[in-house]
Amino acid sequence: MKTETTMLLNKSVNIPDDFYEPLSSFVKKFYDNGYECYLVGGSVRDLLLGLDIYDYDFATNARPEQVMKLFKRVIPTGVKHGTVTVLVSGLEFEVTTYRADGKYFDGRRPESVSFASSLQEDVKRRDFTINGMAYDIKTNEIIDHVNGLSDIKDGIIRTIGAPGERFKEDGLRTYRACRIASRLNFAIEEDTFNSITDALDVAAMVSVERIREELIKLLETEKPSIGFEYMRKSGLLKLCLPELAEAYNVEQNRFHIYDIYHHCIYSCDAALRGNPLVRLAALFHDIGKVQTKRMGDDGDYTFYNHEVIGARIVRRIMKRLKFSNYEIDKVNNLVINHMFHYTNDWTDGAVRRFMRKVGVENLPELFTLREADRSGTGTRFGIPEPIRKLQERIDMIIEAENAITVTDLDINGNIIMDAFDLKPGPIIGTILKELLELVLDNPEINDRDILLQEAAEIYERLKQ
Fold first, then answer.
1. CB 23 within 8 A of CB 39
2. Which of 124, 227, 228, 398 is the most exposed place for a label (fewest CB within 10 A)?
3. Are 301 and 264 within 8 A, CB to CB?
4. Which residue segment(s) compose the domain that 141 sits in?
5. What pLDDT is stored for residue 383 in this prediction?
6. Of 193, 169, 447, 208, which is closest to residue 319 (Cα–Cα)?
């Protein structure tokens, strides 16, 4: 097997025009001062694949203190490990000195780092062959010491060196392999994949924050199901999302052709790309079915209240992964409300109550989730006619600016306190809520004078 390939690609590497000049000038600064500097890692891979790149990482034989002397604006982001961030032309370039890692002591970081003398030594410490190539902007050459070009051509994810050693060094690499496979639609090479299972004890040492980051990145790929399947088959899914792993092989009713697990990951695929929280809701929306599965009188399975149980499970999972309270509430709201059943019998008041319950700002995402849920059955696609009618009625209500929440009322707590000589207290909120219930059914009474009359009757009743 070839151990090194140096290939002149000419037009195969196409750096966007608005980036080429600052990148070229940046690299030239190193060479003018007697140093080497190469673009490395995933950015080289993505350039070869014609994908958009947002991060530019460089490797150099210059030491961090030498890099800091070359440029005016440098952030010492990881000097201990040879890394600084250079700010130039409105861009951020991460620059790391060639290095060789010592032994790993916690399944994540090397116990020691020593600077290396060559690019070849530096790339040998990296994770996957497709991330181990370097690009010389000055000569337009791809420098490949690890056969990354071959694996890109074959669509293969393979570790640099023995996979068991690479995964034992850093447990996060097991998750990254699955995520990159999903992003690129590549296959994980057999020995590399088998070694993920062998390294589950090291993967268990990865912090929940890093797992959450990988999960979010996976949700941003075109088909997250590819990554989740690799995670399930390797044992990673049971390690980080056991609740989802338990849904595998749990049969559903006649409306589904997939088990609960596959329905969830295919619904996730169908959800709106670019909104990871909606995709997370799609991934978890039926997770409560495992606990609520029962056999109905008609011989088919039922899952009563699975959305309520599911929302509790989702809250537990997201707290465990340390999502923010806002993110937890957003996904929980979508999961608990995804089972709404609209009929033409709904009154305008019922529609307004539904809008208030979900939150007007959350309605587009809820409908997106509903469509993804439908696609994930494998038998039905698109938005059914009743849901379209509900959307139309909601649009009409929004256009008419009908009151949906207490803040939409033509009256507020201060007006009520002045009218009835009241002090701040729970009774003010109670009056406002009852007024809103009246307005939900009769929007035409959302007038200050009328509401004050209604408030007077409510106040007299509450005093008794």
1. yes
2. 398
3. no
4. 5-154
5. 80
6. 208
